[in-house]
Design a protein that fits this description.
single chain, Four Helix Bundle (Hemerythrin (Met), subunit A), 2 domains, about 190 residues, Arc Repressor Mutant, subunit A, elongated, mainly alpha, two-stranded antiparallel sheet
Length: about 190
């Protein structure tokens, strides 16, 4: 409903009665759902005014949810594995789509700035220009950062090697380079 009606932070939600009729559920279910959303900080109820959507950008919802669904080590490793797989595939997409000027901009940025893996792949994911990959990577990356994994320590030359493989349009070289960097970064923890 929030999506379909284009509601923004600060907008008023319909009354319990309207929500109950809209979703064809009892008012007690609506009341319980609203209470849960309020406890999560996603909405706020103002006495005599109604219920309003809060700004949930930067909200700690990922951390909160991750405490419930990422209880075992296997699930945590799955997050890391999937994040790495998406990053690698985003690189392959970028290899096909990237223009010479975009590649030169990336090279210049890597050479002139101290960056980390997260910043680098945030740019790569944007260049891949695939909404679904962007959303999945963002969620997995948020989960990854909410976990207690030691962080991968990518070096400036790692990013340069990746960019050279992109420049050469060599997918095998790219995959090999990514795997080598990942293994080296993980072994240096």
């Amino acid at each position: 409903m929030i999506d379909e009606n284009g509601l923004q932070p600060g907008d008023k939600l319909p009354s319990e009665r309207v929500l109950s009729e809209t979703f064809n559920v009892g008012r007690s279910s609506i009341r319980e759902a609203l209470r849960a959303l309020e406890l999560l900080g996603l909405i706020e109820t103002r006495k005599g005014e109604g219920t309003f959507l809060r700004d949930f950008e930067g909200h700690n919802l990922v951390e909160l949810i991750s405490t419930f669904i990422l209880q075992n080590d296997k699930a945590k490793k799955d997050v890391l594995e999937t994040k790495n797989y998406i990053q690698l595939n985003a690189l392959c997409i970028v290899m096909v789509k990237i223009s010479e000027s975009e590649l030169e901009d990336l090279k210049s940025w890597v050479e002139q700035t101290t960056i980390n893996e997260n910043e680098f792949f945030s740019r790569i994911i944007k260049l891949a220009d695939n909404f679904l990959i962007h959303r999945i990577w963002t969620i997995l990356n948020d989960y990854y950062h909410s976990l207690t994994f030691p962080r991968n320590n990518w070096k400036k030359e790692d990013f340069t090697h990746i960019l050279n493989a992109l420049n050469n349009k060599n997918q095998q070289e790219l995959w090999k380079m990514y795997e080598e960097i990942k293994k080296r970064a993980e072994s240096s923890k």
